[in-house]
Design a protein that fits this description.
With about 210 residues, this protein is α+β, with helices and mostly antiparallel strands. The protein has helices spanning about 5-20, 45-55, 55-60, 70-75, 105-120, 135-145, 185-195, 195-205; strands at about 80, 95, 150-155, 155-160, 165-170, 175. The chain has eight helices and six strands. Helix 2 (about 45-55) crosses helix 3 and helix 5 (about 105-120) packs across helix 7 (about 185-195). Residues about 1-20 have low confidence and may be disordered.
Length: about 210
């Protein structure tokens, strides 16, 4: 708890700490070299890699994630967990995205709409990036530094890059550098031939 706040803030922090405020200090000097502090609001791939590399980082992050279910899902690489006590206000689903605790079903519905767009030959909305220029520069820098997430789905190997580029190595050895550059109907056809590509696209947030 920071002591620099006035009395009013202390009061407020006490109230917040009971519900949503993450545990632990805001900024921990031990993780300066990682250029990343453990943060529970976005359990993403870079944080998972830091957990693999540094048990201290893992312990600090663990202390900030209040839900056991969410933490296990994060460690297992699962995309959702069950939160029976917090059904979605919009659709009533009990599944939450591991990444940010948002509703998993609402996420899938958005993805399904994108698949309809792909079938129709339109780019999925998620790939149309409206982020700021600075954010783009930051993600380009991370990509140059090799910040990526690699995962195998059956016979294919998929790599996610910070700029959103999705690299795929197919069973016949064909190497697709950026799947988003392919025509949506080609991607859709490939997915019908290789069901694991669909799992990969779900993992990549396309679906
Ligand atoms: Zn929902």
């Amino acid at each position: 708890m920071r002591l620099t706040h006035g009395a009013k803030f202390s009061q407020m922090e006490r109230t917040i700490s009971k519900s949503i405020r993450p545990h632990g200090p805001q900024s921990d000097a031990r993780f300066t070299l990682h250029q990343r502090q453990p943060r529970a609001d976005k359990l993403d791939a870079p944080q998972r890699r830091l957990c693999d590399a540094d048990p201290t980082f893992m312990a600090a992050l663990r202390g900030r994630v209040s839900s056991e279910e969410r933490w296990s899902a994060f460690i297992d690489g699962a995309s959702y967990y069950i939160a029976l006590e917090k059904p979605c206000g919009r659709c009533g689903d009990f599944r939450k995205r591991t990444r940010d605790r948002s509703c998993y079903r609402c996420h899938l519905v958005r993805g399904a709409n994108n698949f309809e767009r792909m079938k129709a030959g339109l780019a999925p909305k998620v790939m149309r990036n409206k982020d700021s220029h600075l954010d783009l520069l930051d993600r380009q820098r991370r990509e140059r530094e090799g910040d990526c997430l690699i995962r195998e789905f059956g016979s294919i190997t998929v790599t996610r890059w910070p700029t959103g580029r999705l690299e795929v190595v197919f069973p016949d050895g064909y190497h697709e550098r950026d799947l988003a550059k392919r025509k949506p109907e080609e991607v859709y056809r490939a997915m019908e031939l290789l069901p694991e590509l669909k799992d990969a696209l779900i993992w990549a947030g396309w679906y």
